[in-house]
Amino acid sequence: MDDAQSPLPRLSLRAVGHWDGKRPALRYEPDRQSVGIVHLGLGNFHRAHQAVHVDAALAEGESDWAISAWNLRSRALPEAMSGQDGLYTLLVCSTQGTEARVLAPIREAGCAAHMPAQLLERLASPATRIVSLSITEKGYCLGPDGALDLAEPALAADLEGAWPPRTALGWLAAGLTRRHASHPAARITLLSCDNLSGNGRALERALDAFLRARSDETLADRLTHIASFPNSMVDRIVPATTDADRAVAAQLTGWIDACPVATEPFSQWVIEDHFAAGRPRFEHSGVTFSDDVAGWEQMKLRLLNAAHSVIAYMGILAGWPTVAEAVSQPMVRALLDRLWTSEAIPALPTRLHASAPGYCAELLARFSNTALAHQTAQIAMDGSKKIPLRWLPTVLTLEQRGQAWPVLALALAAWIRALEGVSHHGEGTPDQPAITDPLAALLAPLARRPDPAQAVFAVFRAVPGLVVLADQPAACIAVTRALARLRAEGAHTTLQRLTGV
Ligand code: CS2
Fold first, then answer.
1. Do 92 and 29 fall within a single domain?
2. Are 340 and 279 contained in the same domain?
3. Same domain for 385 and 441?
4. Ligand 1: which residues within 6 Å by Cβ?
5. CATH number of the CATH domain containing 479
6. pLDDT digit string (tens) for 126-172?
7. How far is the CA of 5 from the centre of ligand 1 (A)?
8. 14 in the Ramachandran plot: left (φ > 0), alpha (ψ -120 to 50) or beta?
9. Residue range of the domain that includes 194
10. Residues 133 and 260 in one domain
11. Under 8 Å CB-to-CB from 2, ≥6 apart: which residues?
12. Above 70 in pLDDT, residue 20?
């Protein structure tokens, strides 16, 4: 949308100040809120999830918990938000309609590579009591055993003292070192909001390993006294922003917003209540505090995220661009039903079995939300990092019990087929795989090996998180059969054959 030609004003504090009583109002004065949270990974998920809970806390008068939000490299969103005083429109979309609200919990947005001194200062400030992260699975630089991958190039550079740091761990280490020098007793919570199992522990171990790898034992030891790392399960479906979202935001609010965020009505956040330096009263806005975050995480990763990835690769191959379009196909619904009832739920710990069917019924309703254009290609990204967390625990559990897992075998084959760069039109070129992945350049030629057995084995061998499957002949055979079928008959026929629909 072209601001210059639009009769509508750009979203800003000034524009909102001229509120005419008809538009969505702010519930607090943005300028009177002070920063208590530094967030790394300013993206749509953060803005539709954690930031919404912080917004509610600020509206209740907890004015020292505003957010300073940062991207490590990308400037686009921080700049767009800064251009509108940190304000943005939240669009909550359902088939009943779309609701728009303007939020202001993010009082500062920046790019770390561009403004390193400012981020360092924020991290070091004792006013910062929570540092939260949504940096995606790959941002933690973990190997398949959950240990820090010291060979990861950006991490290796940070261990050598690169400035500005290139990884979130490098930033945390730099910020905490500075903070410890000036305020040695200042306590802090480091809160992971990513889809990793045991995300808090994973972050704690990774940071500890990072500090020790650069011989900073003093700070590593000290963190066990002054820092906490609560595990948390985060859940809200938040697609990338489209021009259609911008048009809807303008229509509903009367302001031009360069970066609105569209999401579903559902939102869930379960956190261990271990905050070293206080926290907003998140329970007032629906956050659950629990000592059993692991159970919630397993349900979410193995039922929701696992199903999402299945839909993503089948959707790419079959030509369904969005999740809602994919699940409108009876054969995809049959596939999900089989995934959940015959594979994922039986492999969950028994104590979760009773609640799982209801959880899955709700998932199907969420996935069917046609008001949300959640692209299968978006979910398909970074499969080499996501699949080991989402599918592998189920596969290994069933394999150990001698039970078959045909849906996940097809899903693994679909991922390999998509890595070949082949979509439903047979599109994709040798240099341009259809899906984005940090290992795509390595994996695409392996996935294209003419012999499907060799393709499967080579891909498993090349992905650290899946190497365990390369050593399991029965698993390789199951995936090879599915890949051969996909190659010979295409996605539709293969799906029909498996589901009988
Ligand atoms: C999705 C998740 O893109 C993906 O990999 O599976 O982002 C998913 O939408 C969220 O985890 C839902 O909470």
1. yes
2. no
3. yes
4. 195, 235-237, 305, 308, 378-379, 386
5. 1.10.1040.10
6. 999 999 999 999 999 999 888 999 999 999 999 999 999 999 999 99
7. 36
8. alpha
9. 3-291
10. yes
11. none
12. no
